[in-house]
Amino acid sequence: MAIAIPPKARLIGRRLLQAAPAIAGIVIITFLLTRALPGDPAVYFAGPAADEASIAEIRKQLGLDRSLPVQFLAYLGDLATGNLGTSISTGQPVLTELITRLPASLELTLIALLLSIAVAVPLGVLAATRPDSWIDHLCRFVVTAGVSLPTFFTGLALVYLFYYLLGWAPPPMGRLDILYLPPDPVTGFYLIDTVIAGDLQATLSALQHLILPAVTLALFTLAPIARMTRAAMLQVLASDFIRTARAAGLSRRKVLFGYAFRNAVLPVITTLGMVFSFALGANVLVEKVFAWPGIGSYAIEALVVSDYAAVQGFVLAMALLFVALNLTIDIIYTLVDPRLRLED
Amino acid sequence: MASIADHPTPASRRNSFWRHFRYVLASNPVTAVAFALFMMFVTAALFGPWLVPYDPLATDGASALQPPSWSHWFGTDHLGRDVFSRVVVATRLDLSISVAAVALSFAAGSALGSLAGYYGGWTDRVVGRCLDTIMAFPLFVLAMGIVAAAGNTIENVIYATALINLPFYARMARAEVNVRRESGFVQAAKLSGNSDLRVLAMHIFPNSLPPMMVQISLNMGWAILNAAGLSFIGLGVRPPTPEWGIMVAEGANFIVSGEWWLALFPGAALMLAVFTFNLLGDGLRDLVDPLRRT
Amino acid sequence: MNAIPLLDVRDLTVEFATRRGTVRAIERVNIAVGKGETVGIVGESGSGKSVTSYAVMRILDRAGRIAEGAITFGGIAIDKAPEKVMTELRGREMSMVFQNPRAALNPIRSIGRQIEDVLIEHALAVRSTAKQAAIESLRAVKIANPEERYHAYPFELSGGMCQRVVIAIALACRPQLLIADEPTTGLDVTTQKTVMDLMVELTQARGMSTILITHDLGLAAAYCDRIVVMEKGKVVEQARAASLFSDPAHAYTKRLLRATPRLDSNVRDLLPEPKPAPPPMPQGAPLLEVRDLVKEFSGRRGAAAFRAVDGISFTVHEGESLGLVGESGCGKSTTSAMVMRLLDPTSGAIRFAGEDIAATPAARFARSPLRGKLQMVFQDPTDSLNPRWSAFDSIADPLFRLGGIRRDAARGRVEELARLVGLPQELLDRFPHQLSGGQKARVGIARAIALDPKLLILDEPTAALDVSVQAVVLNLLADLKVELGMSYLFISHDLNVVRLICDRVIVMRQGRIVEEGQTESVLHDPQHQYTRTLLEAIPHPPAIYQGEGLPA
């Protein structure tokens, strides 16, 4: 019996186990994407200039002449050994490329999410506590306008304004001025690595390059978070237990933050999963606009030349990243909401 | 099967609908604006090619990269094509892609979700597992993967957009059906001799429609964004076909040198279209919510 | 009453801003509550009784405001007091207990912490002493093992327990006034009694004043010194409890008193105008025979299966009304769903008109020829009508599906049914949200009798209705039974109501039948201890015009 394991740890363990079917589903879909859908992968992998013979050769080489289950087992074996194939355009193993480029995408996405949470949550709370005030109208405008903004368009507009017109921002090319050498990779996050390297000038440059893409992405994710926060707060504020708290004479501060906000946070945390999904997708577009050397622009370059192993590796990496983010959300939720402990 | 349409008092019901429609438009000017914009987009989609002053594909090297003027309202692009004509003509393609995708995912999603919500048990588990698998991907990334694998065509963009929208409809339909499954009027319908499928189709589903209509409208916006995003990175639509996403992508190269109009106008059209559908979603909720109809 | 009342409400008018302009929820209400006094505010839904109390606490919704009048509490002008003063008064000097106790507690904060919050807010405890004080508060409301319960969350407690916690929060700071807004609505009668007794015991011991807001005259009679009757936002009458019952002055009060079932009333007594009693119906052969009926629900994740219905047998004869009575969770609704063939039993037989209808799976019973003969009236008239269908559509549905009636012929039959249930013809084209509760109930009944059923199951048909509407609906059901020659199986938690309609009753508890017999004998000479507890827990208004003597 697992008596010694605290219930919270056991719940977290269960959440981890619940991610298993999602990962299995992802592996199956990524496999099917190459093998079972219309179109001949061998043609992709052979490249545009290949003839019949070389396509047949590649088909054999890739094991495409074998039965689907056998191919799937081979695919699983490849995944287990970290073999995602080789990119035909760069000649590098896909895994290596993804690992080198992942930190750039992560740095951008995480900074953008932190930024949008920091703005959206207070905005939503304020809007809900002051219905029909200017901040409520502002919130509603931001919410409706924000979800209508195509990320790539916002990005371009910001570039035009802050780079071309005002000249405040550096050119939308990469993570660092060409004057600076990339720091030694420790975390892969330039903001941190440059500080570790003691090159604060480079830190500043990295920050300048990061701001516009991060703001672009943040503007996109702002709307769903603000909308959910506002809606959740409004719903909680109208609920019976808030009335009880008010009738018991708890101060406005206590009612708003101790009671209402803590309850409203729960649905907001749930929404974050969806927001991550949007953010990771929009990330691809932002990376293209700002020539950001992350896995998104890697995938777009690969798409252009039909470098399928690279695209597939990218899809798999993004999906696994998303599962990891969702898992984090689930675990946070489990820790916050006592009702989930009932399942135990 | 007799439909609800041949109701004994269809006239009075239709009247009350129009009265309510006018009331909603009058009481909420934002919805009225959204509805006007919607009609504008529909007009552009239907009659665009006949309304525009220039052939959207005609190049003219002499007048390349001209800023907006009286002869070219939105300026010209690097090949001298009229940006205004291209933006208007593109409406049809952009709306067709998203309408087709949303229609597909609504039909499939609400059918799957309703069955899962009504029957529960293993139907629910199987459907739920499939939806979870789709949702385990960042959706735009999944759409990229599908179009890349299935082939770079407009049809595949539609299928991919439909697939990534499907879980929203399915989950919503499931939840809406589920809350009504045990309600009194559903039990009463069974006692009146309605079969399970009939109960689902005639009693539960129509009551689940209002929230789903809102979802459709919001999703239209999202579907347009997705399709445009895919063409922005070179999937689906190919040049020289006029399409908003690809026009923004082409215009992007000229932003750093100051030719803003190439990207701005198609981008603004895209934004306005999405904005319209989002506003319309809120208006629709007022329109179809029977509890607020008086 | 003392010379200076603790709470004095003068000419209070409250307005709400709505989509259709300003609406007056209450108008020129005058209520005074003396020290140590218990005042009941009684009225049906929409009478403004809750709004009055929210105004006193100054916790009206954002849309509501005090338009006119004055509220004085302990010398403080509540209507003009700044919010800061109100925060100090609420919980400290005046506090409130609400309906639906589970929702009234913060779902993600332990109950101990919620009590502590109030104590600390009003400076009656500091962090280090708060826990002990909170445990004492829990002990005061008689919660066993308060040290352990301190850590419990609302979802881990029963409804009655949650209400005790809400009371503990309300009384933690020993306020002078407690406002209880429908504190026991939704709780079982036995729980209702313990909660009410507890509240009275605590408030009396502390010399507090209490306002009890309720729709239940019986409850008000049992616990209040003085009763205020409200109708449509106005006070129509207020009097000492005893004299209100012996000598009601206002017509509305009289109507309300009549409509409330008492120990000795029959179904006709509830109506405002006298009407001859329905003729007794001769009882015939057995119509419904239930034998050893069992329903098990499999437990989650290997937990033991739960027997909702545990081997019950009973018979309903032709022309008979059988009552099935019990508290929530006793298995009565599961039983009715099985008899109605909406749910398949685990084992046992259900014979209806000589056929074993349990042999046909519930999913296929919709096509059985017996379907039309076995119908049901549902608990919540709103929930039981399709919101997108007009009254006509709802009533006609069974005619089209089972009655083989064509569309053009249906109008006449539906109009006839509407006449039978007393639904005006012009309402047939309305949608449920355009009908009142009583009208919706009539639509539900018309639909149930559309196919001339032999057996009608009435599943708490009046539980969601106001008493005056309940009186009319009960009488309608009594008349229809004779007129159409039906038998009834009446499911209810309320022995008082069952008594008015039923010849025999069955008392259920935990899936089993504990007592069965003729209605009068079960009511007056209950054999089982549980039946006695149930009967004692029901508060009765005293018989009209018989002077003093309040039953406890």
Automatic annotation (TrEMBL), chain A:
Name of the protein described by the UniProt record: Peptide ABC transporter permease
Pfam families: BPD_transp_1 (PF00528), BPD_transp_1_N (PF19300)
Domain ABC transmembrane type-1: 102-333
Topology in membrane: Multi-pass membrane protein
Gene3D superfamilies hit by this protein: MetI-like (1.10.3720.10)
SUPFAM superfamilies: MetI-like
Sorted UniProt keywords: Cell membrane, Membrane, Transmembrane, Transmembrane helix, Transport
CDD domains: TM_PBP2
TrEMBL record, chain B:
Membrane topology, as annotated: Multi-pass membrane protein
GO terms for cellular component: plasma membrane
Matching InterPro entries: BP-dependent_transpt_permease, MetI-like, MetI-like_sf, OppC_N
Biological process terms in GO annotation: peptide transport; protein transport; transmembrane transport
Swiss-Prot/TrEMBL keywords: Cell membrane, Membrane, Peptide transport, Protein transport, Transmembrane, Transmembrane helix, Transport
Residues in ABC transmembrane type-1 domain copies: 91-281
Main location class: membrane
Transmembrane segments: 23-47, 95-119, 131-151, 216-237, 260-280
Domain of life: Bacteria
Cellular compartments annotated: Cell membrane
Transmembrane helix keyword on record: yes
Family of this protein: Belongs to the binding-protein-dependent transport system permease family.
Protein name: Peptide ABC transporter permease
Native organism: Oceanibaculum pacificum
From TrEMBL, chain C:
CDD domains for this protein: ABC_NikE_OppD_transporters (cd03257)
One function term, GO molecular function aspect: ATP hydrolysis activity
ABC transporter domain residues: 9-257, 288-535
Cellular component annotations (GO), alphabetically ordered: plasma membrane
Pfam family, one: ABC_tran
Cited InterPro entries: AAA+_ATPase, ABC_Ni/Peptide_Import, ABC_transporter-like_ATP-bd, ABC_transporter-like_CS, Oligopep_ABC_C, P-loop_NTPase
Record GO biological process: peptide transport; transmembrane transport
Family per record: Belongs to the ABC transporter superfamily.
Name used for this protein in its record: ABC transporter ATP-binding protein
